[in-house]
Amino acid sequence: MSIKNEILKIEHLHKAFGENVILKDFDLSVKSGEVIVIIGPSGCGKSTLLRCINGLEDIQSGKIYVDEQPVIQGSKDLYEIRQKIGMVFQSYDLFPHMTVLQNITLAPMKVQKRKKEKVEKEAIELLSRVGLADKKDSFPRQLSGGQKQRVAIVRALCMHPEIMLFDEVTAALDPEMVHEVLQTMLELAQSGKTMLIVTHEMSFARAIADRILFLDEGELIEEAPPEEFFTSPKTDRAKKFLQTFEYSKK
Amino acid sequence: MNWNVIREYLPLYIEALGLTVKIGWLGIILSIALGLVCALILYFKVPLLQVIIKIYIELFRNTPLLVQLFFLYFGLPKLGIRITAQTCGILGLTLIGGSYMTETFRSGLSAIDSIQSESALSLGMKKHQVFFYVILPQAISISIPGFMANIIFLLKETSVFSAISLMDLMFTAKDLIGLEYKTIEALFLLVVFYLIMLLPVSLLGTYIERRVRYAAYGD
Ligand SMILES: Nc1ncnc2c1ncn2[C@@H]1O[C@H](COP(=O)(O)OP(=O)(O)OP(=O)(O)O)[C@@H](O)[C@H]1O
Ligand SMILES: [Mg+2]
After folding, report:
1. pLDDT tens-digit map of A144-200
2. pLDDT digits (tens, 9 = 90+) for A71-95
3. What's the A168 CA to ligand 2 centre distance in angstroms?
4. In CATH, what number does A32-46+53-243 get?
5. Which has the closest alpha carbon to A49: A238, A224, A235, A215?
6. Chain pair A-B, CB pairs under 8 angstroms
7. A8 DSSP β-pair partners
8. What is the nearest CA distance from A178 to chain B, expressed in angstroms?
9. Predicted structure pTM score
10. Where are the domains of chain A?
């Protein structure tokens, strides 16, 4: 029973770039509807972890299962598994030669062979949920950074993924645009979407997460519910990391 | 300058322009096709073929068209292959043009950020879908200004065709100077006709470049 609603399972994941070990013996289990936030210092392997999950990086050893299907580089199933994973990147990744609507409908039509009218209808519905229905015929260059990221979220959602991965999607945004994107993600979490989020926005992490994972140098150092993690972190490394977000006059 | 002379020779130049334009555009269209094919082979790193293409590009980009034409026109018959001067001109232009077009298109392809193909892959697209829907259209629009520059370069290069006795503009002018001593008129017509051939292309190129840049993405 519990195995059925386990969307993502990672066992003993080991990932290195040449000599440089990035992830060491990493384990993770994510159940349907859970919202997990991964935090940790720059370069600790957060992006690499997300990229391994949808098979953009090969792994040295260990197992990754999405909806019970193993993620294996070069396997034919990879294309099918990727449809179950929605990913939004830090850098803007909309297709610049297509309108917002074309960006969203391309994969559902070409990959899932869904009907154009139905996909477009759904796309416009999703766009209006994030307040961007009037931008459907705009090109990405005509949008602000925050609007681009919300379109990227809609593009991923339109594939009906089982799990959404977010890699610091607000890191490149001007401060006043961060809020609208995080708000969209909060609403998504409330609607019951399974999410794995990498972020440096601590108050957002605290508000959205069911569990916080703290990573350092490729290892899972601490795992706790947000209140516990932010008020009384168990490890010194987590304490030190959290201090870097606090300011005080000397 | 004698306008009667000019009026007299105008038909000769018009005929020569027709020939130059015909050979020029056939060569250009074929060189774009050749360039696209070669660039795709390089992009997909097709074994063996990519090595051959790299050698071809270096060979043709680093020798003058005149030398290449001599090889084709005087060399091929020695190997038992007969070709007309026109075919030779078209072939020469296609080969040198192909090498330039390949380079332009190859750099257009490599200018596309890897995040583009990664986000397409993460949506579940197959590799060929990523290429045709996402990479190719962007690479072509990036390459258009380069293509236009190559086209103008190739049209100018047609001036060496007279060396293999094709009756192009240059040939006609040389004839008039050599046989009739109408140097001023011959040169005047030569410049005017090259401008007639090249200016519209040049203006079109500037226009397209502006369009492409306007349509370019970025923040
Ligand atoms: N393609 C690559 N080849 C070699 N090393 C890489 C590659 N990609 C990432 N790395 C290295 O792996 C380590 C982890 O990188 P990663 O991007 O996963 O960190 P991160 O936790 O996402 O950091 P940030 O918070 O800055 O985004 C870094 O030391 C980085 O230099
Ligand atoms: Mg990162």
Report:
1. 999 999 999 999 999 999 999 999 999 888 888 899 999 999 999 999 999 999 999
2. 988 888 999 999 999 999 998 899 9
3. 7
4. 3.40.50.300
5. A215
6. 69
7. A30, A66
8. 17
9. 0.85
10. 32-46+53-243
